[in-house]
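Escalated from tier 1: NDP holo job.
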Amino acid sequence: MSYVEEVFEGLKKKHAHEPEFLEAAERVLQTIAPAVEANEEKFRSTALLERLVEPERIITFRVPWTDDQGKHHVNIGYRVQFNSAIGPYKGGLRFHPSVNQSILKFLGFEQIFKNSLTGLPIGGGKGGSDFDPKGKSDAEVMRFCQSFMTELCKYIGADQDVPAGDIGVGGREVGYLYGQYKRIKNLYEGVLTGKGLSFGGSLARPEATGYGLVYITNEMVKGAGKDLKDKVVVISGSGNVAQYACQKAQQLGAKVVTVSDSNGYVYDPDGIKLDVVMDIKQVKRGRIKEYVDAVPTAKYVEGERPWSVKCDIALPCATQNEINGADAKTLLDNGCWCVAEGANMPSDADAIDAYQAAKILFMPAKAANAGGVAVSALEMSQNSERLSWSFEEVDGKLNEIMTDIYKKVAAAAKRYGQEGDFVTGANIAGFEKVADAMSAQGLV
Ligand code: NDP
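Tier 2 regenerated the structure:
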């Protein structure tokens, strides 16, 4: 049995009740196998993989809070501090009823490699709670966030662990969490990212994931000798990532023809009018079907995702597992030749197999949506310097980082004889830096 297989067998025995984490670990371990084999003796003798797959620390705690009717509730809070070999733990907080230790370990594990790919000094972590902010009043969300931070503040800090937002944790929640941290610790420091501009947030952070996705897509397309001009792009979602991916794709001359939400999608053959989308989503907080009220020539399709629309490039920017094997086949049959993931894990395993069998350009989330965490790390730098950089400066650095990620991913794939396989390239390039730092730091 190979070293990689041995470690995975051990992991299955220890964590049989964590299916999401096991799936993520298996996929990463399989793809980094050639890089492990090249250094097998060294990695084996220092138990490097056994350490890589085990979080440095997991903190779980109860979060008691009171609703507006005076009723008491208890949720579970978590922070998975997975790997600090290359920097302080960094990764979002997710508030959603589905949150459990397995999901947070899976997300924290992936985050190690994503953060490594950015080239910035940030380790991997993830956290959250099974609390559901949907339908709660501002006062309830504030009380929950204050209770959550009362416990979490013991384990985080600007040079220790710097959480950010994720599903269910946006600007409002980050504000409440930051306020409570400052109140208890009496420290005004960059302990969270995704903050408001008035208290240490970074310009271009809202744009970062969507813009970064298009920057890396542009590099990948250029690498194949093509360009984005006049290419037809299908986008799913109409939230933060989708809106700014649409904006940057349009700025680079592409034609975006769809956006969606969880109820259905809009097809506008003349090109999506982003001002209409932003007005619906950011101002009115409405549903995407309202688009056709403003643009009657567009079509709204209820209850479906946009993958049957003919396109050159697909940018899934909504949620996990939104493209299955059948959707991938439809995309391919319609001539789609490039997929880059804005959302986390939007393509399921069958879909990825289909892209790879068809040998289309495919950039996995770990590399493609790393722009968000990269600009979060730039927010940390600005907080440490007590300075705020201009939009152009942050955006310029983001573009450089995404171009660099593309080069690293493509080079790693080529080095191991898998040219064009950016899944393998991303995992290996992310792994190499972490493995190097772990080896240098001894048995810790
Ligand atoms: P938002 O909440 O702003 O937007 C999410 C969008 O996806 C909404 O349009 C939402 O529609 C839609 N959506 C959600 N669930 C479903 C579903 N089950 N089926 C169809 N559509 C759905 O989130 P973000 O744009 O910030 O995040 C999108 C994805 O990108 C997530 O996977 C997130 O983890 C990932 N990501 C985000 C980063 C960031 O910086 N924001 C960084 C890296 C990754 P509706 O309004 O109906 O719910």
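The domain at 206-368 is CATH 3.40.50.720 (Rossmann fold).
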